[in-house]
Structures are given as C-alpha cells and as structure tokens.
C-alpha cells in the first residue's frame, strides 16, 4: 500500500551554507581613509622630532641655508660635544637625575602603601578620602604654583632640590592612587588570607604578595612620574636661583640667552635632554602597556 507521500517526489533542497561575502566597499574606503589620516598624523608629529635630531648634527650655517632638510650634508658630532662641554651639561644632568630619581622613589613608596590601604584595609572615611584624591585630578597644577612657592619660602626650602621633590611627589598623588588601587584590588583576596594563615603580617603581605603582582602598574606609575619630572620647567624656573642647582630644562634655556640663537646647539641640547626619556620608555614599554591595561580592567 502506497501513500500520497510515497508517490510524490519532493525536489532536492540544497543545503543552506553561508555565503562568503567580501568586505563591503564602504568598509574598505573607511579603512583606507583612516589609514591615510593616521599616516599623515604620524608624519606631522614625527617631523619636528626628526628635524631636531638632524639639526643636532648640522652646523649653524647649514641649518640657516638648508631650511627643513632632514639629512645633514656633512654630519658632525662637534655640536653635541661642544654643547655638552660648554654648558657643563653633566652637572645639570646629575641634578635632573637626583630630582627625578628621588621623586620617583618617593611616589612609588608612598602611594603604593597608600593604595594598598585603600584597596585592602578598612578604616573610617576610606571612600571619602579616595574620592577626594580623584577630585584633585581636575585641579590644574598652575593653580597651586603660588601657594607652593609661598609655603616653601616659609619652610626655608625654596630654591632647593627638596623644594622641587616634595611638590612633584604631591602632584602625582591622584593618578598614582587611582591606578595602584585598581591594581591591588585585582589581586585575589584568597592570597592575602593564605598569607595571614601562614603568619605573615600586613607589611609582609604588602611587600611579598601585592607588590610583585602589581609590578606592571608600579612601573607604569614610576614612568609616568619620571618623564614629567625630568621635563618639568615652570616650578624649577620659579624656585631655583642658584645655577649650581639648575636642572636640564633650565640649562637648555641658557642656549637662547644670547642675541644670536645657535640653532644647532639648541637642538643638540634638546636631544641630550630627550635621549634619557626615550631610553627609559623603550626599556619599560612592555610593563607600561600591561600596567595601563591592568589598571583599566581593574
């Protein structure tokens, strides 16, 4: 006995397979436009830096006559050597290393401990103090310049390196506490409990558990502190009067004090100032990126 379904032959239905579609033309055009814009922005951003590097290996005559050429016709190291020796850049270099190093050390030690307290410990007013530090992110530093100078004058530290280090450490507080608190909060609380069971105190838990795990964030804060401190000019110019205490940015200004600006020496001095910053960033780039990503996720 046959049924209607047996006598009716249904046509074969092709299997439903997803169609391979190429990238839409609008997407391709958008990517090309974005790429061109990014390349243009990179060229515009890098050209002044490349011109500075090029001018440091040129003579004054070649800079004046050659305009914006990036490739020196007759490269020379004499400009760098003369600039370094004539202005005693090594003394200024040591001053900058001292101020930057002590500032960075102070920021890492003080705000790592403070961030650990905000992230782990419980005490009255914890949230209020944390929000107060965040509010300070929106206060321009120039607003506090005059109060800092007046206060340091009363304390007797105006014109000293200590008078630079203390404001620099204080000015880094909001960002340091924000990033480091997030980094410490990302550490599993079970590790702290396990360390407490083993008899570790709070200081040991902080130094042996939390600090190693938050190392990328700590290095990021150190880098974000060191670079602005190394390049800082305004407070140094206002407070320092003794040439023996000048830092590199102030020494760089001495190259423009004459009636005729020696552009090759000025660019050589700028290159001397920026080289340590570039080396520091390249050496810590991996930790810097990981620290920022971890802090944002936290």
Mean pLDDT reading = 83
What are the secondary-structure elements, in order, as H or E? HHHHHHHHHHHHHHH
Which percent range fits the helix content? over 70%
Percent of sequence in beta strands: under 5%
Largest sheet: none
- The Cα radius of gyration reads 29 Å
What structural class do the secondary elements suggest? mainly alpha
Number of helices: 15
Low-confidence stretches: none
Count of DSSP E strands?
0
Q: Gap between N and C termini, in Å?
A: 72 Å
Using brief descriptors, characterize the structure shown.
298 residues; mainly alpha; 15 helices; 71% helix; globular
Please characterize this protein's 3D structure.
The protein has 298 residues and is mostly helical. It has 15 helices and no strands. Helix 9 (173-185) runs parallel beside helix 15. The mean pLDDT is 83.
In a few lines, what is going on in this structure?
By secondary structure, the protein is mostly helical. Helices cover 71% and strands 0% of the residues. The protein has helices at residues 4-7, 25-55, 60-66, 78-86, 89-120, 126-135, 145-155, 162-171, 173-185, 189-197, 202-213, 215-231, 234-239, 248-253, 263-297.
